[in-house]
Design a protein that fits this description.
alpha/beta, Nucleotidyltransferase, domain 5, eight-stranded mixed sheet, six-stranded mixed sheet, transferase, Aliphatic_acid_kinase_CS
Length: 398
């Protein structure tokens, strides 16, 4: 079965064509700068790679361009667009309505629309991707996979905020969580690596570190706590997002310094985090500058690691133990520096990093702890597209 996985953003479409149940990627790529000058389409199939500047005024044009490449007689991988039987869509927010992956219906689309206020930067574009795919691949089944669904197992003591109950009961104000497809995928990979015969009751902490960052406590395969909340802004320090902050700072900026609420929101989401601390949002630049002696960059790295340490400690307490700490996503998989900062001075927990193993990059699940360490430190490459394909396949074949 051919499943086209789509991650539709405000000005981009990330895609993969995955053959299931073989779990093999036939083609992948990205359409970027949709609606802007200099739009680009990237396409990869096997050893063939192509990047081309194209005119892409809207998402429908972008998806049609992708289809043209998939059908190309020279480097395409399908002979007819109807060879795509399923289109799996990443949808950021499912609110409290969706606790699992679903086939798209008119009712599902209306419910996705109803939670626009909870994810105004993401859900409208996710829904647009669904509507466009329905037109382009009119014979395929459309499936929605929700980032928030994995966290529906969190207990109320973890997801409810200590504010008047009416906001939960009347307005659904609570912690929902994000990066769910990533946390689900890497936790399952980690549990399989640990071997359930040895760990029949698993306690895993997954640390997703990219431009957006989050951390999850996962007990027996189910999320019990998570660092992101109503929106994807709190918790760990991120590329441009502040993460946890005393709410008094917000009112100080508004009441004392004269910023508007919109300006403060923009500051916290787009001008803070590692960018606000250093002037750089890319961790590679920050690590390079730190190595050259930039004190702002050095401090930012240690602030970043310190925040992760605190969450690890609290989640170990929440689960009454832990079997493995799992690092994933762009920074988690590739930054030996951040992993070292996080794991240093944590030996009282049995967290002992092997410097040699930590310095090696790889594309498979690997342990980077010392052999004698009582706690596993794993690096697990995430694969959100494959997870979406697996969940979509399960829905249409059950």
């Amino acid at each position: 079965m051919n499943i086209l996985v789509i991650n539709s953003g405000s000005s981009s479409i990330k895609y993969q064509l995955i053959k299931m149940p073989e779990e093999t990627v036939a083609a992948s790529g990205l359409v970027e700068r949709i609606g802007l000058d200099g739009a680009l389409i990237h396409y990869k199939s096997g050893d063939f790679k192509l990047t081309k500047e194209v005119d892409v005024p809207d998402h429908e044009t972008g998806l049609l361009k992708i289809t043209t490449y998939l059908l190309d007689k020279e480097f395409g991988v399908i002979s007819d667009k109807d060879n795509i039987q399923v289109v799996g869509h990443r949808v950021v927010h499912g609110g409290k309505t969706f606790s699992e992956t679903v086939e798209v219906t008119e009712e599902v689309k209306e419910k996705i629309k109803s939670v626009f206020p909870l994810a105004p930067l993401h859900n409208p574009h996710n829904l647009k991707g669904i509507e466009v795919a329905e037109k382009v691949f009119d014979k395929a089944k459309q499936v929605a996979v929700f980032d928030t669904a994995f966290f529906q197992t969190m207990p109320q003591k973890a997801y409810q905020y200590a504010i008047p109950k009416k906001f939960l009961e009347e307005n659904d104000v609570r912690a929902y969580g994000f990066h769910g497809t990533s946390h689900k995928y890497v936790s399952e990979q980690a549990i399989a690596y640990l071997d359930r015969h040895e760990f029949p009751s698993s306690k895993i902490i997954t640390v997703h570190l990219g431009n957006g960052c989050s951390i999850t406590a996962i007990k027996d395969g189910k999320a019990i706590d998570h660092s992101l909340g109503l929106g994807p802004a709190n918790g760990l320090i991120m590329g441009t997002r502040a993460g946890d902050i005393d709410q008094s700072v917000i009112f100080f900026l508004i009441d004392k310094l004269g910023y508007t609420a919109e300006q403060v929101n923009n500051i916290l989401l787009k001008e803070s985090g590692m960018y606000g601390l250093t002037g750089y949002s890319d961790m590679r630049d920050i690590e390079e500058k730190s190595a050259e002696g930039d004190e702002d960059c050095r401090l930012a790295l240690y602030m970043n690691g310190y925040r992760i340490k605190k969450y690890i400690g609290s989640y170990i307490a929440a689960m009454n133990g832990v079997d493995a700490i799992v690092f994933t996503a762009g920074i988690g998989e590739n930054s030996s520096v951040i992993r070292k900062i996080v794991c240093d001075d944590m030996d009282f927990l049995g967290l002992q990093l092997d410097p040699r193993k930590n310095a090696v990059r790889g594309k498979t699940v690997r342990a980077v702890n010392l052999p004698e360490a009582s706690l596993k430190i794993l690096v697990v490459p995430t694969n959100e597209e494959l997870e979406i394909a697996k969940q979509s396949f399960a829905v249409v074949t059950k």
